[in-house]
Amino acid sequence: MRLIPFLLMPVGLITMLPASAAGPEDGYLDLTPYISRVDKDRNTERQAGGMRAAYGWGWQGPWYSEVQVFGAILETEDFFDTNEFTDQSDYYMYGVGFDVAYNFGDRDGYTPYVLAGLGAVYDDVLPDKDDSTNAFFNVAAGITTQEISRRGIRLRSEIRYMHDRFENGMNDWQLAFGISIPLRCPPAPAPTIAAAPPPVEERAPVEVQPLDSDGDGVFDRDDRCPDTLPGAQVDSDGCVIANQVIKLENIQFETNSATLTPAAQDALLQVVRSLRSQPGNEIEIAGHTDSQGNANYNLKLSQDRANSVRAFMINNGIDAARLSANGYGEQQPVAPNDTPSGRAQNRRVEMRFR
């Protein structure tokens, strides 16, 4: 079939493009098979199948660009009779285009988007004298999911309208579902140069240093409060002092909910172990959000998330009387909210020791 080599060549070229991008994240390669409801004036079967490949990159906030190539086969109802056999002909479409996309979010989770763009499509029909290359424009709306693998692969689904100028103009609708593959490349490891072995010399007795398992600066033999959280300030006995704030790391929730992720629950178990060794502290659990969305919604979401963390700690043995929970919404940012990295810093949960 003529469609297969046409698609394989552009996909190969796209994967050779540089993976770095000037936008909020690296480039990506999307592969999306689609089914199409074609214009009845094409005189083909109304249902058709095709394949689209797109290379995309971010360039300003939620704005992205995509270069797409696509191809489709439209089964016709025309038959050509000879003395020996009857053949059914196919109608082929090959195209390339450029789209500009706007994402309603920062692509960390489920992200709706819209796009629009222009391009050219080659309509390969019978008889060959009617073959032509025509301009087209298309618009689409769709959604990408959160990452579904450690490689960062996402799912992508969309509905697209395309109008091309073949004959008197054709209007097709396409429904696509496929995958989005990030093209992030890890930095190359620094070259290692083997050093010459040192000369053999007699070694003096090694003095064994006392252990400090939790890294709080107090040796285990003197530490009355082991398992101190990283970054906490302690007294000479290794116990957390009052009037300090500790940001809880790796505490994440399901998108737009107060449900803790499995990774967040594992991280909170370490916090619970630390609090068990700090029996004298009263703690406020403070939830914060970024400034995106409605302020009242963000305030309620931060309160629900703080309550969720408090409930998890109580269910795992921490005295409820020691814990309070408050949500502050977007009121106490620690970074500007006009960049993805700043908003990520502002979405946080803190423990405030009293």
Keywords:
single chain; 60s Ribosomal Protein L30, Chain: A; alpha+beta; elongated; 8-stranded antiparallel β-barrel; 354 residues; disordered N terminus; 4-stranded mixed beta sheet; 2 domains; Porin
Description of the structure:
The chain is an alpha+beta fold and 354 residues long. It has two domains: 180 residues, Porin; 134 residues, OmpA-like domain (60s Ribosomal Protein L30, Chain: A), CATH 3.30.1330. The chain has four helices and twelve strands; from the N terminus they run H-E-E-E-E-E-E-E-E-E-H-E-H-E-H-E. An eight-stranded antiparallel beta barrel has the order 1-2-3-4-5-6-7-8. A four-stranded mixed sheet has the order 9-12-10-11. A hairpin with a 7-residue loop joins strand 5 and strand 6. The longest helix is centred in the last third of the chain and has 21 residues. The termini are far apart. The N terminus is likely disordered.
Please provide a brief summary of the model.
The chain is of the alpha+beta class and 354 residues long. Helices cover 16% and strands 38% of the residues.
